[in-house]
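Section handout 9: paired folding examples.
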Amino acid sequence: MDLIKITDLTNQLGISSRSLRYYEQVGLIESVRSDTEKFRYYDTQNIQRLKQIMVLRKMQIPIKDILRIYESEDMSTVVDAFVSRIRTIDDEVDALSELRSVVNEFLQAMIENGVKKISALPILYEEMEKRVDALEERKVMSYSKLSDLSEKLAKPLETSIVCLPAMRVISSQLKENPNLSDTDSFRHWAQVNDIWRGEPGSQKIFEFQIGTGDVVMMKIEDDFINKSPYLDYAFEGGLFAAANIYLDEDLGERFRALLSGFDSNKYYQIDYRYDGTLRHPALLEKLISPDDQRELVSLLVPVRKRTADPALYEKPQEIAPGAISLEEMEGQNLSLWTVDVPMDKLMPINDPHYQVTEQGEAEYIAWISTRLLSTNVAVKLPFRVDIEFRIRKENMQFAWGADEGSIRLYHGNDLNYLFGINMETNPDERLSQEAICFHQPIFRDYYRYTKRGGINRNQYNRLTWIIGQKQIAVIINNEIRYCGVNFPYMSADLRNQEPFPILIGSNGQSRVFFKSIRVSQLAQVQKTKIKKEELLMNTRQSNNIIPIIHRLVTDEYGENYWFNGCAKYVMECLGEKDYDYWFFAGLTGDLFTQHYTYTKFSGDAVSCYMMNEKPAEFVEDIFGRCGYAATFVAKGDIQKNSGMYLQTLMAYIDKGIPVIVWGDTSVGVFVGYEDYGNVLLYITGNNKQPERISLNKALEGKPDTTGWIFVGDKKESLSLAKLYREAIRDILKYQNVKTDTYCFGPEAFRAWASDIENGKFDKMTAEEFDTWAYYTNYVCVLATNGSCCHEFLKRTWELNQDMGYLEEISALYRRTAQIWGGDRMQNDADNLEVLGGGFNVTLEALQNQEKRSIIAAKIREAAVCIDRVVQILKENTISKE
């Protein structure tokens, strides 16, 4: 019996091996395979049947009908299938013929009647007489012509662009010879070892082809130890064009259609290597099919962004003066976050003249245009920059020719592309153009508008550049000098743009004084796909949830401070592994600082007090110190404009970033939404899964001290060693806080002890005694800090080898843990737990004069330890600064 190997058969007939396996799966053909072989083989009978199937499929006979044909011995079944297909074709031909006739008649009548306006078409239609074109002469149909016709009549592919994540994978390719693949044995091995995991569409299991056969590729964890005979490697991921197809379709034809569909795509192109091969072989991923009788897969082909060509787009238009007001422009370019750049924090690039004057201005001379000042603030498109500056007229010497006194912005370090005003000046004022010049983002074509960019000499000038999603605008001294719309970059998908720093520059000897520089990240405007009520349907995504879902904190391991848990959750979703819970607990001071409230209970930790008093400043400071922009939006502001903030929240969820919720009694994160945002998914407490709360419930809260926290884009990368060092230095800042209502540090222990000793609880009933608020919260902070700060101190010392004094600080905090009773190895007979003043405290103990005096004395011992911590920090930080 003659047998043909699967790889030879696929080459001979031009059919994919995946289609062959599908035909086997549904029972149309059979293969043979010996125990010693890794490949399937087909005999003559199955090859003949396969050829028949291919002809039937080219005629678009459905698989279910082909199965009926081979299951029945009655020729009538074949006839029925063909008749059914002919009827379908007749219907399509009739419809296409009629449409062709109508289109042709319109064309001829328009030419004959000189129609030039669309409004005349209804009248023209009434005057037309329908005609039917004669049928073309019949021609003999070959298999190749049948294939061409099949491709022409195939439904166009609906494609999307997906970004596959980089991942570690293991494949059916063999370690000893990667050119060989054993898919069946690999599947068996993966199932036996319980690593065959991945639901359809989960982007974890893929198939592709190499020259010698099929390959199965599966995601594995980074720490997986591969002792198998199969090859593992890093899959780089990236952009892929995806199209959903059924396996009973012609995979080869669909693959070619997918490739050719990008020939004229403005934004993306197939990603070929220099040798003409794809960056990665085309992938197949199994999906859940809405039709149980047909297997659905996603066909994925690597793509990359096409080099932008403005010639493919309509030219931008300038808005006429007065057609838009400053207020309207502000409303159409909302800021997500804003950074006021300190004049002493500008970073000189290429050694310009730069100093900060006694008046607090940044004095700057460029000499040449490549000597700049960096704001150290990175933004994505769209963005806005506001500058207040002055230039002394007497300093405009034009020593190196024209172009003195320009003000230039750069988005990133490529200085070939700029946004400038007062460009092309000249010693002869009659020749000065005072132009506005800029390069369009992404496409980088150049625009120049003369006599638009002039400024006032020896006076302060206010300059605003709006590089928006709807407009590019230049505003000088509250006058709109230029406003353009319909730039090609505005139609691009800006969500995946990288953030770049804003650089400020000039040219020549002009001495520029910058009084203020503000950089704003603008919100992306949701593009309107249809006119209002055009289709009477909602096209927004109704449900979404971020991919990372787990508990907010694990308080059984001492993670007791909720702000830090929320901050860590956001950073985890942003891919920041170093910014964990303990990092934030040290950064906020929670991990080192005791607190105590004289009057009403104010919160569980230092961060609670900061959020209750100045939430916006605290949030901006903490995340800013990590290099990120962040905004606290108070509930009062959210309630006034709930629609806009809900859209912002949903946009964050769509990007996989949670939004922090600071509430009256609850702190947590929004991780998803349902019903177009009317229901929000919220994680708080020890919940492993989110709870569902209504939007109305989410909008409740005190207008000033509760709200939502949006963590924006990364502005800069900072030294981890420096962050830890500064966190240790800032311990001093928290240890000396004392107000009319609360205090921190050693004073907190003493105030706590004094209230106990002076009889604060004497007249309190059991019903009035809130154990947590009046007492055990302070024990919890004492216990957590004394037991949990050491890893932070150790990490700081590892990163900063000159901070050996941290060893003594760690010992002092361990002593506070012993005072509470957390170090069982010390057998301290009079710790707070033994004395009844720990977590086991009772109102009776606090009302007993003898017991409470002993408890108060033990708490004061903790104050002495922190006194010594303060002294060590003063000796080793303040004295060295």
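Moving on to protein 2 of 2.
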Amino acid sequence: MRQLRTTGQILLPTEDTAWVLHEDGCDPLRDSSRETRFAISNGFLGVRGAQAINRGATWATPLCTYVAGLFDTPDTIGAIPELIPAADWLQVGISLRGSSLAHHPGDISSHPLTLDMKRGALLTEFRQFDVPALSLRLRTLRLVSQCAREVGLQIVQIEIQEGEDEITLNASLESMNLGLITERLEPDVGVWRTRHSGKTLAMAASVTLRIDDEELPTTALGHFKWSWNWKLRPGQVISLERMVTVVRSDNGASDAGSVARQKLNIAKTLGWHEVFAEHEAAWSHRWERSDVEVNGDPVAQHALRFALYHLNSAANPGDDSVSIGARALTGPDYLGHVFWDTEIFLLPFYTLTWPEAAKALLMYRFHTLDGARAKAARMGWRGALYAWESADTGVEATPENVVGPDRQVVEVLSGKQEQHISADVAYAIWQYWRATGDEDFLRDAGAEILFETARFWSSRALLEPDGRCHIRGVIGPDEYHEDIDDNAFTNVMARWNIRRALDASALMRERWPQRWEQLSSRLGLGDPELQHWLDVADTLATGLDPETGLFEQFAGFHGLEQISLASYTGRSVPMDVVLGRKRTQESQIIKQADVVALLALLPEEFVSEAGGINFKFYEPRCGHGSSLSRPMHGLVAARLGYSELASRLFQESTAIDLADTHVAIAGGIHIAALGGVWQMAIFGFGGISLLDDGIAIDPKLPARWRSLKFSLMWRGRDLQIKINQNLNSINATLKCGKPMKLVVEGEPYELRFGLSLNLATKKAAGQITGQSFGGANV
């Protein structure tokens, strides 16, 4: 297996720049965004790209490590669960004759960061220190293993070029007690516990310093502190090698400290080169399953690799008790809470490239089903209403109040009214089932969620004198409008949820009658209730005008003030800040995709030309006040053939985390927007859609994309698709698995293992272009 590429002993990144994210300079105003962008993670451990060498409290925060599932609730009034930071295990201090090598960023004239996305490693370099008569180069590498997720690795290498001096090097773990109570502390092992949630965190560490391959003995200064002193000479190559293992225990049943030490001993026996090699092999496997290759647009290629890197970094198929928060494990925003983002924006990627990870994320919703049942009961309904913001238990974790843009305290209603989350979870479950055919999951977990969410909607929707069932007092995806009635997205998704639950009940009766009897008996679910579900689905108001094909976003939306977003071109803040909260609520300005989101998820609900009609109506009214909005609009625009608009939305979506000028990302990566970038490429430009018995493809590539190549997994099959715009062709190869159905531009084909389909497309991709309707996208 290929080892880490080196020059002598100095670490170097992957040579292909398409796989590398690189930045230089020392700008304190941008440091927090760089820390986010250059974060490394494996779904269990997340480490921000903060500087580890001579970090001082005045110019860098030591809190850069997060552990999935490590939630606790602070001892403050109205507090909600939040993800607790773990110890910073990367600290390294270097001093010459007792004086720090670098006191602040200005002491280092060059500080490049390089994220090797292909191998999941962060490399940094320091040169040109303000130290007379001494020339040295210092490089570091850090990673959290994609193979053994409890393992973190740090390498610091120093090459002495000129000069001699006395040097002291210190390594330590810092801020170990913030939010945690110390239970046990030894020189190389620590155990802490949360105050209220009953969780235990253990860390074990090993540090070695070598000078020209000879190990230098250490002087231990205390718990998790090591120090070395020696005289620098030209030609010396110094290597500090640190390995750390982290263990989280949720019930205290195991000796987490002993487990951490055992895992550390395994890693030490392997050695850091082998730890890296196994990590690299795991990343290679992920890229083989998930890479997307774009020919003709290097900027888009780089942006997609960045998105895929963070998506592959965020999931852990080995732990189904946690999910992915709105900022993954890259920052503190939203306190680590899980939203609808996971099911709607992330699950499609995992379902079609990493089904083991998708299943673990859905099992998290199964494990938190009791919390959803309790929330529904507390609000007077039956079934399961999932938390809008969920932590570890599934109990609602949305804050009751926040400070608004005008510094006024605003009541947060989304925890009570943004109820489409239950249908969103059901949607992800059914799509996973369609794509994987995972019978064990549907039978033992997924069906129960479908039944309990359908039960919620059937109790939530009330039959009124007009003969229709209505759902009143909700918030749709467009959070500018609160306490509204019959939100189209919510109601249509609820109807879809109910109908899929009925499909699941029929499927269980047919395939697993014994399991159906057990489950229906435990849930008290009989034929009369199923008939009631059917009646609710058939009479639920949706806001659809059958004559025009236009959905009214919610009852009364068409009567609100119309405001042209074109008049606000160049604004740098969201429209609710520009107009004020009250006027925004009384206008047709939309925060993010709502009816357009429905069009993206359930295109079959829009017959004939209705898709274009709704998109043209709502796109000019959307102010894109959420990072989730542009990816959803871009997906729909691509499907509809508005190639120019879709391309622009794709570029704007990728800029959210890659361009400092767009939005602040100090609080973490916008992981859902990155999932949306993948969906735009695959479902939008690639034209992929799921069928009950196969996969359909109807591509519409941007004009600059000469070709698009990607891999998908479908019911145990591994297939690769390449769309070649230059040749007007589609090539599909089944790399493993039984024959399957592939529908290309409406024509069905059988795809067999070992035989590639090479088909001419009916029209050249990228020929259909479009424009913004009303100048909404500023």
